[in-house]
Every structure is written in structure tokens, then in C-alpha cells.
Design goal:
The protein is about 0% helix and about 50% strand. By secondary structure, the chain is mostly beta strands. It is globular. About 20% of the residues are buried.
């Protein structure tokens, strides 16, 4: 398992990593957070362009990048406790 996460704190509280799997993937990534309420997420390419986003409170879901080119994307997850950034690898 390759840990591709990068943690950014937006609050004084520590936020643990939110599982996103499989990573790398062929396009479908599953996000699951039992500890935090996810308020929204967005995905950018390495140029900083937003390629996909979702604004909705949830604890788990699917991120579908199957229609996008292979490469590295950055997932930014906003929770009630802070923000987490993680690298997603689409094969």
C-alpha cells in the first residue's frame, strides 16, 4: 500500500486521514469517514484546475474519475473538523 496523503490543517484540532481507496485506481475511488462529517470535496489537476466537486454533507461515497485522463489529481476534503488534501492516482 502506497500512502499518498498530504495533511493540511485548517483548524487548531488535529484531523486524522480519511480513507480513500483503492489508490491508485482505474477511476473509482471510495471515500469513507466514520469519524468526521464531510461537508464537501473537490478534485484539481496538477495545474490547480478544478475538475470535479461535490458540496453535500456525508460520511461515505464514491468519487468517479473514470472519464478523466490517467495521472495524478489532488483531492481536497472539507470536514467539520478541518481540511485534508490527498493525492489520487488514476491509472
Amino acid at each position: 500500500i502506497l500512502d499518498t496523503s498530504v495533511l493540511t490543517l485548517a483548524s487548531a484540532n488535529s484531523i486524522q486521514l480519511i480513507p480513500v481507496y483503492p489508490n491508485p485506481s482505474d477511476g473509482l475511488f471510495y471515500i469513507n469517514s466514520q469519524q468526521y462529517t464531510i461537508k464537501s470535496w473537490l478534485i484539481t489537476d496538477l495545474n490547480g484546475q478544478i475538475v470535479k466537486k461535490q458540496i453535500q454533507s456525508f460520511h461515505s461515497g464514491v468519487i468517479d474519475l473514470s472519464g478523466f485522463a490517467k495521472g495524478i489529481y489532488i483531492l481536497q476534503v472539507n470536514t467539520t473538523e478541518g481540511q485534508m488534501n490527498q493525492k489520487l492516482i488514476k491509472e
